[in-house]
Design a protein that fits this description.
- It holds the Pfam family NPHP3_N.
- This is NACHT domain-containing protein.
- It comes from Apiosordaria backusii.
- Keywords: Repeat.
- By secondary structure, the chain is of the alpha/beta class.
- A 5-stranded parallel sheet has the order 2-3-4-1-5, with helices on both faces.
- β3, α9 and β4 form a beta-alpha-beta unit.
- α1 crosses α6 and α11 runs antiparallel to α12.
């Protein structure tokens, strides 16, 4: 009888200990979450998620699907390929670099990769300086990997002033957190939109992370830029958007052309205009010259007109270049 009671007591004691440990873990997880929410509210990082949704929503489903199929991209995206750590997507103004960057984020996420990203713009310098970019990347990483959150709280307690003001310190902190994060891609769009004094520093710091053995891949998109080029030319795979996006432009223009012709049929327009419209839209493709934004602006203008005469006039006087458009 004593033996049975003893075994029962031991079993109960083990169960009580396991229950107490789980409760202890739950309390700590709750406290870690509260600490993290407090820090996120205090530091107010820009997470760029709204931009990602906007840029992917405003393009067709097939737009940019060519990029992951290029040899250059496949080599870069291969986590086992350590010789291709940086991908530099170059493009003239209006070529569609931001859309491609957003599509790249979505593509890599669909492959199960941790992706940190930022969309920089000269219109919002507060989000485009290196300190805010590094800070954002840190919080994106912690959103994805909760186990790392206590490390940030420790830094907040011990190095608060550096955490809120020192971009070198925050850049190093990002590197330290990436050491245990597994394969990670960092996608930065619009580096040329940052202040000229910040561009080289931002790229140089991010490149250092890829070379430090943290299993990090870097994707940069920008216009051709001398400062960025000095940092990237020897260490990146380069690809020019305007050499590859003719299919995206053609799809956009052809879709809008067909929509316009359908509208003409509803208006019982003269049959002679159909050939004119087709020729004008073919000319629109030529005048785009790798600038998908030019094609979007012009097709958007045509969609906003409500009579045949105005549409014919616009088609007869297509502007030259993005600036005129």
């Amino acid at each position: 009888m004593l033996e049975k009671v003893t075994i029962a007591n031991i079993t109960q004691d083990i169960a009580d200990r396991e229950r107490a440990y789980k409760e202890y873990e739950k309390q700590h997880e709750f406290q870690d979450l509260e600490n993290y929410r407090l820090l996120r509210g205090k530091l107010s990082p820009s997470l760029y998620a709204d931009g990602l949704q906007e840029f992917t929503r405003t393009c067709s489903q097939n737009s940019g699907t060519w990029l992951p199929e290029t040899v250059e991209f496949k080599k870069w995206a291969d986590v086992n390929n350590k010789s291709r750590l940086c991908f530099w997507l170059q493009g003239i103004p209006g070529a569609g670099k931001t859309i491609l960057a957003a599509k790249t984020v979505k593509h890599l996420q669909s492959q199960g990769m941790t992706v940190l990203f930022a969309f920089l713009s000269y219109r919002d310098e507060g989000k485009s300086n290196p300190f805010k970019v590094f800070q954002s990347l840190i919080f994106q990483l912690l959103e994805d990997q909760a186990a790392l959150r206590p490390l940030l709280h420790d830094v907040y307690i011990t190095n608060y002033q550096k955490l809120i003001s020192d971009q070198d310190f925050v850049g190093d902190l990002l590197g330290n957190l990436l050491q245990t994060s597994g394969p990670t891609a960092i996608v930065i769009d619009g580096v040329d939109e940052a202040a000229e004094s910040d561009r080289s520093y931002l790229v140089r710091t991010l490149l250092r992370l890829t070379r430090s053995g943290y299993n990090v891949k870097l994707f940069i998109s920008s216009r051709p830029d001398q400062g960025v080029g000095r940092e990237l030319t020897r260490s990146s795979t380069e690809l020019r958007v305007q050499d590859h996006n003719a299919g995206d432009i053609a799809e956009l223009v052809d879709t809008e052309r067909d929509n316009l012709l359908s509208m003409f049929r509803e208006w019982d327009a003269d049959e002679g205009i159909y050939g004119q419209v087709r020729r004008a839209f073919d000319l629109l493709k030529e005048k785009s010259r790798g600038m998908i934004l030019y094609a979007k602006l012009m097709t958007g203008l045509l969609k906003g007109l409500d009579n045949v005469g105005d549409i014919r006039q616009e088609l007869d006087t297509l502007p030259d270049g993005l600036e005129q458009a």
